[in-house]
Design a protein that fits this description.
single chain; 150 residues; alpha+beta; six-stranded mixed β-sheet; 41% helix; 29% strand; membrane; transmembrane
């Protein structure tokens, strides 16, 4: 009789241990999933910071003291479409590179003989979405994102 009671007690003792192990493994899995999500988020944040850094470096090289005289004359009446890559140059810093266009357009003289010079600087990482800045008569007046279609 005593051996029968001992055998049944072992079953009851092992059941709480199995439940405890299941609870610990569930908690461990949840922790690992959250940890993995945290690493993924940090990696995405790092990619965004690197992308922002390339734009900051580009702006520092071109916008702090812009060399308007280095802009090429526009081959079009007004500014050419961004999809035309013939006027693009490459700017590179470390492993980051941007395609850019630095173009000048002069409007016909007005009645007082004044020629209005306009400049456009556009840069892109993928040649579809461009970040552009515009100057008129040597003064910066606007900037924004532009999409080019083929």
């Amino acid at each position: 009789m005593m051996s029968y009671l001992m055998g049944s007690q072992r079953g009851w003792v092992s059941l709480p241990i199995i439940a405890l192990l299941l609870a610990i493994s569930t908690l461990s899995m949840q922790y690992q999933q959250r940890l993995q999500a945290s690493y993924l988020w940090r990696g995405q944040l790092n990619d965004i910071e690197i992308e922002q850094q390339v734009w900051m470096d580009f702006k520092k090289d071109f916008m702090v003291s812009p060399s308007l005289s280095s802009a090429t004359f526009s081959e079009c009446v007004g500014f050419c479409e961004l999809g035309l890559h013939s006027q693009e140059k490459i700017w590179q810093k470390n492993t980051q590179r941007l395609h850019y266009q630095w173009v000048r357009y002069e409007s016909p003289a007005n009645e007082s003989g004044h020629v209005l010079a306009s400049y456009r600087l556009c840069a892109s990482q993928n040649q579809h979405q461009y970040r552009c800045w515009w100057w008129r008569d040597g003064a910066w007046f606007s900037g924004g994102w532009v999409s080019a279609s083929d």
